[in-house]
Design brief:
Elements (H helix, E strand, L loop, with lengths): L21 E2 L6 E2 L4 E4 L5 E3 L3 E3 L5 E3 L3 E11 L5 E9 L1
Parallel strand pairs: 4-8
Antiparallel strand pairs: 1-3, 2-7, 3-6, 5-6, 7-8
Length: 90
């Protein structure tokens, strides 16, 4: 005989809010220093000149200017290169 009741399954428990990730300011838009440009999980986009990356990989504008996106090759620790999008404020 079992010493505990059947556990059963719980449904409808995955009800958490979205994380609102993504690009917040697009290419050609004017931005002020400190504005959030991209919210992301991991460094899928890299910070270029005029930007900085915070602890949770959010890219902010370091200066006032216009946002631009460029394709770059980022070298990994192993020596392989991977394509990344670089966020630049000019």
């Amino acid at each position: 005989m079992s010493k505990v009741k059947a556990g059963g399954s719980s449904k409808n428990i995955h009800n958490n809010a979205g994380r609102r990730l993504g690009v917040k300011r697009f290419g050609g838009q004017k931005v002020n220093a400190g504005e959030v440009l991209v919210r992301q999980t991991g460094a899928t986009k890299v910070a270029g000149p005029g930007t900085y990356i915070s602890k949770n990989f959010t890219i902010h504008a370091a200066i006032d200017g216009v946002v631009e996106f460029a394709k770059v090759r980022k070298t990994k620790f192993t020596g392989k290169t991977a394509p990344r999008t670089q966020v630049v404020v000019k």
